[in-house]
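[Discussion] Sanity-checking designs against the backbone

I'm trying to build intuition for which residues belong where. Below is a structure token string of 1224 positions. I'd appreciate it if someone posts a full sequence so I can compare it with mine line by line.
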């Protein structure tokens, strides 16, 4: 096919019905880039012989070296589809299509790139290696396509391996591929079932609400039924045309309709459409007539059971048998005579030099590309099976516009409610006289070298020259000559453009009085040449460019959904947190000027003047306005802010960075800013100590980021610390600990407290006397239970009693898994409480307007996007398993119910305590108010708190506000009166004038101080200052000491003692230290961040794989052999701290036969006490007093403490009396 000029591609952008936006998704090394190369060859961008070898879309050097894709990249392709003539038209109908292809990575570390590609696309080509089958990333990309409502087409790749490597027969290969398609459909069925359960649950709740409104709260609902829905359209089925079979490396592919069109007439069928449904499944050719297709039942009736069992299905006989014959004659057993017969039978044109070649694989590629061309089969499948933007947007955009997850079980189109939604759903581009509202989404920010952009290059690049016609090249030459003449004229006059008089438009630009576009328009009125005007405009644009002098230019990669964007337009950039009804809206909104538009052509960029709706494009000018992704709109007040993207991975690996040369610190800071924008999965954290931390998704991702920093962004030498792995600190209830008193703690527990106290003193520089003055533990006559601590503030005014204990393991796992969900519920509850306070204040002032608060709450309810997928506990019964609701407002009651269930099934918490905590006692989660720790108020305390705590789980319950206002104010009680009904105490203290005054405090004045102390303790544990996990803190008493407030000889004056701010701060520190003290009375544990490792390996290297996993302190979760293959699938759990270098190690040990895939799993406790020492007689006999066995938990703890600059118990000098002997 001849090379297609960019002008032709730009012309096709205006026909939205003939545009296909497609992404290529697959597991790593399943053939995505090879397939993309074959599609690029159709436009003459690369040669057919180089397809699969040049890896054109892998433009990075490290991508070429490693052989994997690391960044998603797009390219626009032209395809002319020739259809069969109709009865009304004697000539074949030809249609031209524009296919915007986006290649995406397959490695788990770059899953954020997959999310960007899926958001910008309407369809997807999902590749599956028929040998490796459905892998972990295959499921991930299918889930990504499902979440984004992207319509997929399945491509079963590498079928040649079944012939050449496995030597399967056609019938065996058919059964194998049939099972593979069933596995993929099972994954989709799981997604459908989850969405269906969520949809039915939502509809049931709505039906119950309507029933209560009409029949009352006590009336049982009788009218409810489940609606039957057809899910056949979501599955892959070859007879439907949405499954491709092929080999990308050999350049061939087909769908069953290709063979149906070939054999329909021979089998006596009137049209290929009659044969296509029979091409997959148990359909057979009648062996006698050869012109009739029989079912299994008909075949058995005619020829008997034995012959029916040995019959060959139609797909095998017509499709696979010819394929096997070609491979066996050329590759397996080279036979020249047989090759000539095969070529003649297929009708393929093969040159004599190709027939005589010694490279059998090259001959095979020529034959297969002539018989079943890969690009043609894929392009036709994309055009026929995948929707255009006009068809896809009415189904895809409602969840993005309204901001809440919508089940794919309901495929009905949503009716638009306003003009903007009508333009969005119809993909309206508008015209110059009747413009449509502009709405576009930037999926990612790409960093491009300055010289790679056409406007910054010295001349036309090689790619531009290759894609330009002769007329375009001559026109460009004339423009260059005229531009040079204009610059010569400027130098001859001695007046540069920046010093023109104010009457000149160019001077107005320099003084800020006009925009470059306006000035260029004014210049065009007086200029004698259009080329001179273009030269002036380009020069003014480059002078006004904010990135002038930068080697890297940030370009947004996006998709326009409605309207038309043009160069010079002033539009608004909205970040994901932007909300037009919020008071902080201006912080996330910025007006930008479109400086350039590009058509993405892989490594090349073609400048465009405008881009209509339905296309993907590149835009320059969003730098500084959009960080990673965002929405572009012409009217930010009316246009919706499209929902944020869903990603399957989260950054977990951290490293600290610093320049080798301290003078390069500014380069490092600027480089990190560019990297943060150019990589959608990177996080940059600036610590309070000045340390700069880079957070990445994995080891490979970290290597790529450091390469970019050193060579492109910072361009300086950088020192990288060892990976900083997150930990969690927890406690466990060992046997015999539940009822042990504080005085019965053995030497191990006492030494733990002493060591931690010494560490605290060493780090803070405080002496023991200072610590005793600041933290005074209340003496008691009877010993308190384990974990219960009573502490008094420094001024002796308030005594707080807390009970620290471990949460059940099942509950801890649930809280760790649902931290994000808890955060959303807490955020919504905070908005609801703020709404109630504003409403109460407006009523107190005479009924003010509270509509703003209502709108803000409703907006927050619809703006928070909830993922519908969840990894449930394996031992959970299906009877109690309920679907996770799709609406945030319904998530609170669901979490409350599930949390109650986890408590009931676990041991250690009495049912009465569980019901109290779930009903009203749960005060907060931590750390950051959404972590896996709980702050609970006792029954005595909850009776005097300021609000009903059920509002966390049911924030929109109207009864919550009533119970909040009706709560009894609790007055700080004296310790002697803690059991009395009257909790009141007053203090007579001198005011600033010396006069006596009465001060009265209640617990509601210091509830936030208690919560803050809990959050601080949960954020920084006593072992190595890492967040806590699985810890429950119960506030049992909050007492006021009247005798200590005034007249006790305290150094603090009475006026200062009752100062609420001082007392609040002392309560915070007291609660924090009390929690840490209670924590140390239990047996501490470290929670390790874990990876799930998926490995496919043969039996020959299975032992080596196990050896590497065991050496990395991993454990095997499952092992199974794939049916019909020699591969074992091993699933293991490996600590992240031990995973660095794991992939290289396992590749070396297995000679590349096994490649691991690491995915973040969560946190798991390490069942080893960091302070364990041998104490029993058996332990001392086996290990000795020095404990020769390494304490892994202590090693991890000391490593973290040393990195943070904390005290570590380590001998610096082993033998001080010995002298080192030096060699001469």
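Best answer:
Here's mine. Compare freely.
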């Amino acid at each position: 096919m001849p090379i297609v000029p960019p002008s032709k591609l730009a012309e096709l952008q205006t026909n939205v019905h003939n545009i296909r936006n497609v992404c290529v998704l697959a597991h790593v090394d399943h053939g995505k880039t090879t397939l993309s190369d074959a599609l690029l060859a159709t436009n003459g961008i690369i040669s057919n012989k180089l397809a699969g070898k040049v890896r054109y879309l892998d433009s990075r050097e490290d991508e070429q070296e490693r052989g994997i894709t690391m960044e998603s990249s797009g390219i626009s392709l032209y395809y002319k589809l020739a259809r069969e003539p109709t009865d009304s038209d004697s000539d074949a109908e030809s249609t031209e299509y524009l296919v915007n292809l986006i290649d995406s990575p397959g490695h788990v570390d770059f899953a954020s790139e997959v999310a960007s590609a899926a958001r910008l696309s309407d369809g997807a080509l999902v590749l599956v290696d028929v040998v490796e089958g459905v892998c972990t990333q295959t499921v991930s990309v299918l889930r990504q396509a499902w979440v984004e409502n992207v319509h997929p087409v399945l491509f079963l790749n590498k079928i040649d391996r079944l012939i050449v490597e496995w030597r399967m027969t056609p019938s065996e290969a058919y059964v194998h591929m049939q099972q593979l398609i069933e596995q993929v459909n099972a994954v989709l069925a799981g997604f459908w079932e989850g969405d269906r359960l969520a949809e039915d649950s939502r509809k049931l709740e709505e039906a119950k609400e309507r029933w209560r409104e009409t029949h009352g709260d006590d009336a049982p609902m009788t009218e409810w039924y489940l609606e039957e829905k057809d899910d056949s359209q979501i599955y892959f089925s070859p007879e439907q045309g949405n499954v491709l079979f092929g080999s990308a490396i050999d350049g061939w592919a087909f769908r069953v309709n290709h063979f149906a069109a070939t054999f329909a007439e021979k089998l006596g069928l009137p049209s290929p459409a009659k044969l296509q449904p029979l091409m997959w499944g148990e359909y057979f050719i009648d062996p006698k007539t050869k012109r009739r297709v029989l079912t299994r039942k008909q075949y058995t009736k005619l020829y008997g059971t034995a012959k029916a069992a040995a019959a060959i299905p139609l797909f095998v006989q017509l499709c696979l048998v010819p394929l096997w014959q070609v491979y066996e004659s050329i590759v397996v057993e080279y036979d020249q005579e047989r090759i000539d017969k095969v070529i003649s039978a297929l009708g393929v044109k093969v040159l004599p030099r190709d027939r005589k070649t010694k490279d059998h694989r090259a001959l095979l590629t020529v034959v297969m590309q002539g018989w079943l061309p890969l690009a043609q089969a894929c392009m036709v499948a994309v055009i026929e099976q995948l929707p255009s933007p006009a068809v896809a947007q009415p189904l895809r955009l409602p969840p993005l516009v309204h901001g809440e997850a919508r089940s794919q079980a309901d495929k009905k189109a949503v009716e638009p409610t306003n003009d903007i939604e009508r333009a969005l759903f119809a993909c309206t581009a508008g015209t110059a006289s009747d413009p449509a509202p502009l709405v576009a989404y930037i999926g990612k920010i790409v960093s491009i070298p300055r010289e790679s952009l056409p406007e910054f290059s010295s001349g036309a690049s090689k790619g531009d020259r290759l894609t330009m016609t002769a007329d375009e090249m001559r026109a460009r030459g004339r423009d260059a000559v005229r531009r040079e003449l204009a610059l010569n004229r400027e130098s001859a006059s001695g007046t540069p453009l920046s010093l023109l008089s104010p009457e000149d438009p160019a001077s107005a630009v320099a003084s800020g009085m006009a925009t470059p576009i306006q000035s260029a328009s004014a210049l065009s009125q007086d200029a004698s040449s259009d080329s001179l005007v273009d030269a002036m405009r380009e020069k003014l644009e480059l002078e006004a460019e904010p990135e002038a002098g930068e080697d890297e230019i940030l370009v947004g990669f996006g998709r326009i959904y409605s309207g038309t964007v043009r160069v010079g337009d002033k539009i608004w950039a909205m970040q994901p947190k932007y909300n037009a009804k919020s008071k902080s809206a201006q912080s996330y909104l910025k007006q930008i000027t479109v400086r350039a538009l590009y058509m993405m052509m892989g490594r090349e960029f073609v400048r465009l003047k405008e881009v209509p709706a339905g296309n993907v494009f590149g835009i320059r000018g969003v730098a500084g306005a959009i960080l990673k992704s965002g929405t572009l709109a012409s009217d930010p007040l009316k246009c919706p802010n499209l929902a944020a993207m869903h990603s399957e991975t989260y950054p977990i690996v951290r490293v600290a960075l610093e320049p080798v040369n301290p003078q390069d610190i500014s380069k490092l800071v600027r480089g990190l800013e560019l990297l943060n924008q150019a990589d959608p999965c990177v996080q940059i954290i600036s610590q309070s100590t000045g340390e700069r931390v880079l957070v990445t998704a994995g080891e490979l991702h970290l290597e790529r980021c450091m390469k970019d920093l050193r060579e492109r962004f910072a361009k300086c030498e950088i020192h990288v610390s060892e990976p900083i792995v997150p930990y969690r600190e927890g406690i466990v209830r060992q046997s015999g600990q539940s009822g042990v008193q504080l005085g019965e703690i053995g030497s191990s527990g006492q030494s733990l407290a002493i060591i931690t106290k010494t560490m605290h003193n060493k780090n803070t520089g405080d002496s023991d006397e200072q610590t005793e003055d600041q933290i005074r533990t209340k003496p008691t006559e009877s010993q308190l239970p384990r974990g219960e601590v009573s502490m008094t503030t420094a001024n002796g005014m308030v005594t707080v009693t807390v009970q620290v204990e471990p949460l059940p393991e099942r509950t801890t796992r649930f809280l760790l898994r649902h931290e994000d969900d808890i955060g959303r519920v807490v955020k919504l509850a905070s908005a609801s409480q703020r709404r109630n306070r504003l409403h109460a204040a407006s009523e107190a002032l005479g009924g003010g307007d509270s509509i703003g608060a209502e709108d803000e709450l409703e907006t927050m309810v619809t703006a928070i996007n909830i993922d519908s997928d969840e990894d449930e506990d394996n031992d959970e019964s299906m009877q109690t398993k309920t679907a996770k609701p799709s609406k945030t407002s319904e998530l609170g009651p669901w979490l409350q119910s599930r949390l109650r269930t986890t408590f009931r099934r676990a041991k250690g918490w009495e049912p009465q305590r569980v019901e109290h905590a779930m009903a009203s006692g749960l005060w907060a989660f931590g750390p950051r108010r959404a972590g896996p720790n709980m702050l609970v108020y006792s029954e005595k305390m909850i009776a005097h708190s300021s609000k009903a705590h059920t509002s966390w789980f049911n924030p929109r319950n109207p009864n919550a506000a009533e119970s909040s206002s009706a709560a009894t104010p609790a007055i700080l009680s004296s310790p002697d009166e803690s059991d009395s009904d009257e909790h009141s105490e007053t203090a007579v203290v001198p005011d600033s004038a010396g006069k006596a005054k009465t001060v009265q405090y209640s617990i509601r004045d210091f509830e936030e101080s208690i919560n803050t102390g809990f959050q601080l303790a949960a954020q920084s544990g006593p072992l190595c200052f890492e967040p806590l996990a699985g810890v429950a803190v119960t506030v049992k008493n909050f007492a006021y000491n009247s005798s200590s407030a005034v007249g006790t000889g305290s150094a603090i004056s009475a006026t200062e003692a009752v100062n609420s701010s001082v007392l609040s701060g002392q309560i915070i520190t007291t609660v924090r230290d009390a929690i840490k003290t209670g924590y140390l009375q239990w047996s501490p544990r470290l929670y390790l961040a874990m990876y799930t490792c998926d490995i496919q390996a043969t039996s020959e290297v299975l032992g080596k794989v196990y050896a590497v996993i065991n050496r990395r302190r991993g454990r095997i979760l499952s092992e199974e052999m794939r049916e019909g293959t020699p591969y074992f699938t091993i699933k293991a759990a490996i600590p992240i701290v031990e995973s660095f270098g794991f992939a290289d190690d396992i590749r070396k040990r297995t000679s590349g036969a096994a490649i691991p895939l690491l995915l973040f799993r969560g946190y798991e406790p390490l069942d080893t006490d960091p302070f364990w020492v041998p104490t029993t007689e058996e332990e001392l006999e086996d290990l000795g007093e020095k404990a020769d066995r390494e304490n892994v938990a202590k090693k991890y703890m000391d490593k973290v403490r040393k990195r943070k600059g904390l005290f570590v118990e380590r001998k610096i000098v082993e033998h001080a009396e010995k002298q080192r002997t030096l060699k001469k």
